[in-house]
Amino acid sequence: MQHFVGGAHAEAEPPAWADVHDPARGSVSGRVALGDAGAVAEAVKVALDAQAAWAEESLGGRQQVLLEFIRLIERSRDELAELVTGEHGKTLADARAEVNAGLDVAKFAAGIPHLLKGDFSENVSRGVDTYSIRQPLGVVAGITPFNFPVMVPMWMAPIAIACGNAFVLKPSEKDPSAGNRLAELALEAGLPAGVFNVVHGGAEAVDALLAHPDVAAVSFVGSTPVARHVYETAAKHGKRVQALGGAKNHLIVLPDADLDAAADALVSAAYGSAGERCMAISVAVAVGGVGDALRERLVARIERLSTADGHDEGTDMGPLVTADHLRRVSGYVQAGADAGADLVVDGREVRVPGRENGFFLAPTLIDHVRPDMTVYTDEIFGPVLSMLRVDSLEEAVALINGGEYGNGVSLYTRDGVAARQFQHTVQAGMVGLNVPIPVPVPYFPFGGWKHSLFGDSGQYGEDGIRFFTRRKVVTSRWAPSAGSRVDLRFPG
Ligand code: NAD
Question: Which domains does the chain have, with CATH numbers?
Answer without folding.
Answer: 4-245+452-475 (3.40.605.10), 249-433 (3.40.309.10)
